[in-house]
Amino acid sequence: MTQRGRNLLLLAPAGAWFLVMLVIPLAVVIIFSFGERGPAGGYVPAFTLEQYANLPARWAAFKNTLMLAPAGTLASLLIAYPLAYYLAVRADPRWKTVLLVLVIVPFWTSILIRSYAWIFLLGGRGIPALLDLIGIDNVRLINTPFAVLIGIVYGYLPLMVFPIFVNLDRLDKRLLEASADLGASPWRTFLQVTLPMSLPGIATGCLLVFILLMGEFLIPAILGGGKVFFVGNALVDLFLQSRNWAFGSAVAATLVLLMLVSVTAYMRLIRRLGAQREDVALM
Amino acid sequence: MTKDKDYISKRAFMEELDRYRRGSVTRRHFLGVTGLGTATAVLAASVPALRPRRSWAQGNIGDRVVLATWPNYHDPANFEAFTAATGAAVDMNVFGSNEEMLAKLQAGGSGWDVFVPTNYTITTYVGESLIEPLDLARIPNYDAAAFDPRFAGPGTVDGTVYAVPKNWGTTGFAVNTANLGGLPKPTTWKEFWDITRDAFSGRTMVHDYQLTTIGNALKYFGYSFNSVDTAELAEAEKLLLDAKPHLFAINSDYQPSMRSGDAWMTICWTGDGKQMNRDMPEIEYVLGKEGGELWSDFYAIPKGAPHLDAAYALIDFLLDPAVNAKESLFHGYPTPDKRVDALMPAEVLNDPILYPAAELLDALEFGAAVTLTDPNRAELMARFKSA
Q1: Are A282 and A200 in contact (CB under 8 A)?
Q2: Which stretches are transmembrane (chain A) (predicted)?
Q3: How many structural domains compose chain A?
Q4: For chain B, what is the radius of gyration of the CA atoms?
Q5: CB of B260 within 8 Å of any CB in chain A?
Q6: CATH class of B62-168+295-348
Q7: Residue A138 domain-assigned?
Q8: What is the pLDDT of residues A117-153, one digit of tens each?
Q9: Domain with A177 in it: what CATH number?
Q10: Residue B128 contacts A where some CB pair is shorter than 8 Å
């Protein structure tokens, strides 16, 4: 077998998967998005831009997603970074593995069940009842954007911790010593050595979390009480409730386009950051 | 047959039972070797009520039947009995709305054998060729004369029976009277929406279902629950958008929040109202004086059901009045079957939640097919949710 033949064979399973599970469904979505809703719902072939013209009707869903996805990513980053830093740099090596396993443990239970648990924690008999004890009364947490944000950070934190951890773990500690020897304060060492060296991990973690959040629907449905509405929720409703497949496809295609644009812009930004610092290889 | 024994020792019986449980012997082997099969047959033949009905007790109906239904709507013990009698396990899929059920069937390949459509969906299923006409000869437990025609009627379209009645009920609201704080108990939809935007701000739930949520917003103005008039819908939308900031949630799974005390009032179906009231008497079920919805649910078979024999067997089993009465006592929804009513305790038949006063009942309307499929109502609900 030629080298070329072997290469093709190696790529065949992934290629077939890619074609059947991504390319074909995406093509169907795009075709449907130019169609019309059938009288009892579903799809009727047509060629119209009507569905795209109707997109402003879901403006609130796009707005919520475009605000809460970056906010959730940022909040995850702010919580994950110190944790990853501690695990990689500070933690006693004997305990490192145990601590890492503890970060993964929540993944052993379905996200649906873990999100449900938050209903009770954030509900009237949970955290608000505790706050009431110390005199802060009438706090409403469940079914608010804040509850959704908590669910997001809780659900996706490990996805942010791991890339940053792997990055920091590989950090050559001699660089930190060199920085200290040259008279830099610990804070300055962090800002000028550790942080830039961990940028690839941050970039990867943010990308992972952001992409998943853009398509999120479960957490807003459970912790938002149907009042915090993401594009994902709009899609579920369009396909399962109002059965407007044509409009649903237009919303889906727009979401994919938005993600392509934002991820491309993000990659460019990261690459430019990397190019400015020739001493650090990024991505 | 010299070794033929006329009894089996306790120990040998337990050993066989263990083998059967582990799955190492078949049910037939178990029933044969323990003598239970013969015993059941003898017993059944001598006690008419226990005689297996033809269709659900007949030979090989396969090892499973897939049922698409609503939450809290079946007694699991009945399914266990069905499996024990027929060998077919009931695989249950629970849904949140008729629209979702319709969407799954329209998409195709649902794999369902039996589903539970509500009255107003059946003509749509017939129109879309998604539903199988029923062969009533295979449902001997269905006795048309025993069913209230008001609730059984929608199962027949153009003279063909497509669905047989399961339960009926109403859509009202449940209110936790302990939170009223001196206010009189609301009795109308007008009060429901007014209290929501005032004393109960942040404490009311509405269904994540356009039919009931929009329908009961229309009742605020005294319009028909089924209105598809654009001007009337516009008024309902204005009310819904005005109420939205005051809602606790838009969710059809309201029991957990009502029971925990997070929510104080919710749009509510009969059975949920009964279940909550049974455990917490302060949660009362109210039918709005202006009216609202009266509905009936059916058993039906979708086109292309993979286990057709098992589907008929399950429907027939569930319509057995003794089984149906157990179902009804479990979930709290009345049946339109006189034979079942005869088996129900008097306190159930006199329960005002299950059997509302005639003047309240007369004000109610059946949902119409167009109410479910009207694109404007669907889009209104979407605007309300995403606002």
Answers
A1: yes
A2: 7-34, 66-87, 99-121, 141-166, 202-225, 245-267
A3: 1
A4: 24
A5: yes
A6: alpha beta
A7: yes
A8: 999 899 888 898 899 899 888 888 999 999 999 999 9
A9: 1.10.3720.10
A10: yes
Domains of chain B by residue range:
10-48, 62-168+295-348, 171-292+372-386
Distance CA B330, CA B350 (A): 17
- Any idea how long chain B is? 387
B residues 235..254 contacting A (CB < 8 A) = 244, 247-251
Question: Which class in CATH covers the domain with range B171-292+372-386?
Answer: alpha beta
Structure tokens at A207: 């990308």
Name the DSSP class of A19: I
Convert A15-25 to b/e letters by CB count within 10 Å (16 or more is b).
eeeeeeeeeee
Residue with tokens 């190492």: B24
Q: Which domain holds residue A211?
A: 59-276
Q: Residues of A near B (CB-CB distance < 8 A)?
A: 37, 39-42, 57-58, 60-61, 119-120, 123-125, 140, 142-143, 225-227, 229, 233-234, 237-244
pLDDT digits (tens, 9 = 90+) for B313-327: 999 999 999 999 999
In-domain check, residue A239: yes
- Give the tokens for residue B329: 């006592």
B83 Cβ contact partners less than 8 Å away, ≥ 6 residues apart: B89, B90
Separation CA A93–CA A80 (nearest Å): 19
| Chain A CB within 8 Å of residue B208 CB | yes
Spatial contact of B226 and A106, defined as CB atoms under 8 Å apart: no
User: A242 contacts in B (CB within 8 Å)?
Assistant: 99, 210, 375, 378-379, 381-382
**Cα–Cα nearest to B71, from B256, B288, B312, B204:** B256
A57 contacts on B by Cβ (under 8 Å): 379, 382-383, 386
The answer to whether the complex's ipTM is over 0.90 is: no
Q: How many CB atoms lie within 10 A of CB B21?
A: 10
What CA–CA distance (Å, rounded) separates B64 from B311?
Answer: 9
CA gap B161, B153 in Å, rounded? 9
pTM of the model: 0.81
**Other C-beta atoms within 10 Å of A215: how many?**
16
